[in-house]
């Protein structure tokens, strides 16, 4: 009986040792993951800053980039003009249908 008890205790002790080792390995892995997440966040910040810097510095704009930016601004202004024009038309016809030059034909 003593032999069985000692063997069982030895197995339990060995299992407890393995469990502690596993917990230490998992904790170290979690720390490595956290460190990797921090490095990724810093890398993303640096990448974002570099991208913004390349787009926001006037000296580095290429003629093609300036043209695309101007075209984009033109599209925004055109959209605003279309919205205003639609509002103007809507305001003109609120009181009833207005006659246009086409109605006279």
Please outline the helices and strands.
Elements: H1 2-56, H2 63-92
Give an account of the 3D structure.
By secondary structure, the chain is mainly α. 81% of the residues lie in helices and 0% in strands. The longest helix has 55 residues. The protein is elongated and about 105 Å long. The relative contact order is 0.03. The mean pLDDT is 77.
Top keywords for this entry?
105 residues, mainly alpha, 2 helices, 81% helix
Written as H for each helix and E for each strand, in order along the chain, the element string is HH
Number of strands: 0
Question: Which structural class fits the helix and strand makeup?
Answer: mainly alpha
The low-confidence runs, each spanning 5 or more residues with pLDDT under 50, are none
Helix content: over 70%
Strand content: under 5%
Largest sheet: none
Radius of gyration: 36 Å
Q: Round the mean pLDDT to the nearest integer and report it.
A: 77
Counting DSSP H or I runs of 4 or more residues, the number of helices is: 2
C-alpha end-to-end distance: 116 Å
Shape: elongated
């Amino acid at each position: 009986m003593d032999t069985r008890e000692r063997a069982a205790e030895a197995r339990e002790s060995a299992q407890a040792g393995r469990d502690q080792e596993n917990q230490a390995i998992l904790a170290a892995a979690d720390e490595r993951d956290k460190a990797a997440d921090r490095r990724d966040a810093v890398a993303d910040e640096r990448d974002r800053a570099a991208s913004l810097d390349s787009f926001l510095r006037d000296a580095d704009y290429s003629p093609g980039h300036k043209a695309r930016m101007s075209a984009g601004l033109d599209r925004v202004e055109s959209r605003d003009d279309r919205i205003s024009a639609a509002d103007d038309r809507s305001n003109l016809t609120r009181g009833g249908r207005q006659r246009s030059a086409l109605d006279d034909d």
